[in-house]
Every structure is written in C-alpha cells, then in structure tokens.
Amino acid sequence: MRAAQLQEYHRPLELIEKPEPEPVSPRDVVVKIGGAGVCATDLHAQEGQMEPAGLKLPVVLGHENGGWVHAVGSDVTTVDSGDSVLVFPAYSCGLCVECRRGREMYCERHQFTGLTRDGGFADYVLVDERSLVPLPAGVEPAAVAPHADAGITAYHAVKRLLPRLAPGTSSVVIGVGGVGHIALQLLRILGGGSVIAVDTDERRRKLASELGADEVLADADDVKEATNGVGADVVLDFVANDATHAAGLRMLARGGLYSTVGFGGMITAHSAALVGGEQAIAGNLVGSWIDLWELMQLHARGDVTLRTETHPLEAVNDLLDKLRAGEITGRAVLVP
Ligand SMILES: [Zn+2]
Ligand SMILES: [Zn+2]
Predict the structure, then answer these.
(1) Is 170 in contact with 141 (CB distance < 8 Å)?
(2) What is the tally of helices (H) and strands (E) in the chain?
(3) Burial letters for 93-118: b for 16+ Cβ neighbours within 10 Å, e otherwise?
(4) How far is the CA of 101 from the centre of ligand 2 (A)?
(5) 69, 158, 238, 303: which has the fewest Cβ within 10 Å?
(6) Which of residues 11 and 330 earns the better pLDDT score?
(7) From ligand 1's centre to the CA of 114, what distance in Å?
(8) What is the pLDDT of residue 162?
(9) Strand duo 308-312 + 331-335: pairing
(10) Cis status of the peptide bond prior to 52, with omega within 30 of 0
(11) Is 0.90 surpassed by the pTM of this model?
C-alpha cells in the first residue's frame, strides 16, 4: 500500500510502499482509509516537537482518520467488514484508573495513531477495536474525518467551559481555523452567551460570520470595547503564540478563564492580576472516545458544520506547506 512517512525531522514526508497491515492481536481492526485530516500537530511532528508525546521515527503520520472496516481480528464483535467508522486516535487500555475515569488521554499505556504508531496518511491503518466510533448512516468518512482530532479537541475544550457559558456571558475564539471553526459552533450550540471571533485573516473572519459569530474582529484588543469594557468571561486560544497569549489575558473579564488549545508560545502573567481578578489559565489535550461519540450525535442532527477540502494522498507535502503558511480555511482532508 501507499503511505506518507516521516523519515527525518525538518524534511517533507516520503511517499513509500509498505506491506498492507493485517490484524495481529485478536482485537485488531484494519481500516481502509476514506479520509485523513491534515493537522497542525503534523507540522509539530515534522518539526521534531512530538517526541515528548512518544513519537519515534520513522512513522506514518495521519491521526484524523475515517474509513471502512477492511479486516478484523478473531475477538472483534462490535464491527464488521464494510462498516463506516471514525478512528479515535488515542489508544487507551480501558483497564487503568485514568481510563476508568474516562480520561483516556492520561492512559498508562497511552499510544496515538499517527504519532506513536503508523497513522492514516496511507491506504490502510491498523487500530484497536476500542478506538472505533461507528458512523451514522449516510455519513461519508472523508466528510467527518477531522472530527477524530480537531473536532474532539474543540468539543473537549468547550465541554469543560459549560458552567461558564450562561446567558449574558461572552466568550472569545482566537483563530477560526481547523479547530477554532468547530469550537465557535459548539460555543453557540451548547452555551447561552455571545460568541466573539478574532482572526487576522479576512477569509477566516468571513467563515466566522457564516458560522454565526455574534461579533467578528480583526484585532484582539477590540474585545474590551465589544464587551462594553468588561472583557470576556472565557477566551479560547487556537493560535497560541506569545502575542495571542498576551492578548488573551488582556481581554479577560474578572473571574474569567483563559483556555489554550493551541500550543507553542510562552504565557507570561502578573500573579497580582490573576489574584485580583480571580482569573484562571487552563490547557486542553485532545478529548475522549465519548467526546467523539457525542460530537457524532451533534453532527447527525446537523448542528455542526465541518468545512473541508479534499486532496489526493500525493498532495500531502503541498498541504502541509499551505497549512504552515496559514493558507487553509477549514480543514484539508487526504483521500487516498
Ligand atoms: Zn490533529
Ligand atoms: Zn488505560
């Protein structure tokens, strides 16, 4: 089969031929890829920043995978050949304390498809039965593949905020990209307050308006004025460089929460301002299997729109370059 493999850091992925995977353990499932989302995490992997997450070279990237069950191990009971599925990217054992708490991202035996084991920038991917989420009838895998990571990351971050999203509150999305455009919709569907989108790119501001943002701004420092000088109760940062971290903290209301989903910059805060304003800072790491299942229920109801563009597997390096340059609106999906 064809696969796009990360051989060396700071180099394009190599398109290679690999043997088609087969079930090894009784609960293994081989999924024929219908679509694999291209994500900023793939850029971080290329830049050598994902070793703390367990990445070892070489590895086939691609962690936002949807497709059809192709082959199953002897103990697999919940799916059959031909079923449409999404692949929850984190492998979780189901046995450790964190798994039993539903916090699969902290699993003692944590693995991640497309980072620590071969992913879906390929014709087929080998996963555990436990990772699969069946797709509602009529949903094409390529149309929802990015929900497997971008979607659950947005869902997980917004779900944690729900007690803060009462009517009359205001929340801000910094960066209306692949993850931010999903979070913007979830804040509207699941929360009762107003939603302000901030993005420096005109195309992404247009997308934010189309998705129903109450206010769309080019400059983060206009948020104070847009909230009558009060500031935002919740800020979600999907850009996460030094400048957006600083702007996110500046725009925060008293009692507010600044929550970063993106990563890369350095957060610097005056403790006196945090204490005086009773403000909090939080980080967010992907999401759980149940987050993906719940998000699929919203998708099936037509509540969440995913903006995607599809490309052949061979275009992977072009797409990574475009993503790095900020030239993708919504999410790029590879269809092998
Ligand atoms: Zn991703
Ligand atoms: Zn576990």
Answers:
(1) no
(2) 11, 18
(3) beebeebeeeebbebeebbbbbbbbb
(4) 9
(5) 303
(6) 11
(7) 9
(8) 96
(9) parallel
(10) no
(11) yes
